[in-house]
Amino acid sequence: MAIIIKKATTKKDMKSFIRFNYELYKNNPYSVPDLFDDMVNTFNPKKNAAFEFCESDYFLAYKDNKLVGRVAAIINHRANETWKKNEVRFGWIDFIDDLEVSKALFDQVEAWGKERGMEAMVGPLGFTDLDAEGMLVEGFDQLSTMATIYNYPYYPEHMEKLGFQKEADWVEFKLTVPEKLPEKFIRISEIILQKYNLKIKKLTRKELNKTNYGQRIFDLINEAYSPLYGYSKMTQAQINQYVKMYLPLIDLRMVSLVEDEAGELIAAGITMPSLSKALQKAKGKMFPFGWYHLAKALFIKRPEVLDLLLIAVKPEYQSKGVNALLFYDLVPIYNQMGFKFGESNPELELNKKVQAQWSAFEYEQHKRRRAFKKVF
Asked: DSSP class of residue 279?
């Protein structure tokens, strides 16, 4: 039977698009499902500020009248302008182990991109860097995180057979939280604080609600991340969206900020308890009981694992050891809260500055993911 590609145009289609991933990975112990409502909002131009500079369409693949694959075709015009490229992104790509299916999906993305003047396709990427990105190529037996993609080992095999080339790799690390920071690490951190007249800032909920710290954190992320692969700076509407969406959920004990003597924010570390197992129990649904599993992991019985969500350091301080100050502050807090391990989340494999910050930890690189590219 021929593969039929259908453009998702209705709410029913989009429900099928989102739920296909849940069905494909229903019994997989390593996949972490997204929340259905979050995905609905992600694909809604009225809810996702990225549509200020992105356009997209969503496609479903059918074989023998059965849904067998999905893909989003995305153009991030802001990123293309920033990096002087004409690329269409493919995201939210899933398919059964059938080369005809994967080929049909990528052929559709290619045709969609060519119609809009694109010259290559790259992915998996989302609308922006705050969407999950990168296809897993190592670590298929490791639990995923809420911020990353999990996929079966046959996915990258299909990419190679279809003529895609490596564009960029990210690596991920599993960290063991030390019971005590090494004396050398403590001394160096205290020297850095004094040498550059820096101070560690702990936010209160009142400060976060009544000051512009949320804005300052995301402005810093924009500045720190701007040289990184494919990054497009967040707009003000995006920043407003993320501040409203994410910061109320964060336990401020697990946030560390560093300021200079003038009070300018120069570093930020945002971490939180891992929600991987809670999201697995929720099975993509907040109701009737999904909210309980998430609330339990956040506020009641925290897991042993934490996620290092976002770490940003002002460019002029990135080679001065300022990253160490975040963990000088946070490691004792992790111990008080009972965390044993940390997940670094993806870091570009060539970003040695970031990877050097794990010197205070025992760590292992346990996952690798890849962006693939194909020129038309």
From this structure: H
* Neighbouring C-beta atoms of residue 219, cutoff 10 Å: 17
282-285 long-range contacts (CB < 8 A, ≥24 apart) are 282/33, 282/35, 283/22, 283/33, 284/19, 284/22, 284/33, 284/34, 284/35, 284/36, 285/35, 285/36
pLDDT of 338:
96
**Model's pTM, two decimal places?**
0.93
CA proximity to 330, closest of 301, 314, 309, 300 = 309
Q: What is the largest CA-CA distance in the chain?
A: 70
N-terminal to C-terminal alpha carbon distance within the chain: 27
Cis amide leading into 124 (omega within 30):
yes
SS3 94: strand
Distances in Å between the alpha carbon of 176 and those of 32, 57, 252, 273?
A: 22, 41, 21, 14
Q: Which residues pair with 368 in a beta bridge?
A: 138, 171
Q: How far apart are CA 283 and CA 35, in angstroms?
A: 8
Distance from C-alpha of 316 to C-alpha of 314, rounded to nearest angstrom: 6
Q: d(Cα 49, Cα 130) in Å, to the nearest integer?
A: 12
Q: 5-33: per-residue pLDDT in tens?
A: 999 999 999 999 999 999 999 999 999 99
- pLDDT of 249-278, one tens digit each? 899 999 999 999 999 999 999 999 999 999
CB-based burial label for 27 (10 Å; 0-12, 13-18, 19+): exposed
Enclosing H/E stretch for 195: helix 183-195
Q: Could you tell me if 371 and 122 are in contact, meaning their C-beta atoms sit under 8 angstroms apart?
A: yes
Q: How far apart are CA 333 and CA 367, in angstroms?
A: 26
What b/e readout covers 123-134, taking b as 16+ CB neighbours within 10 angstroms? Answer: bbbbbbbbbbbb
**Residue 27, amino acid:** N
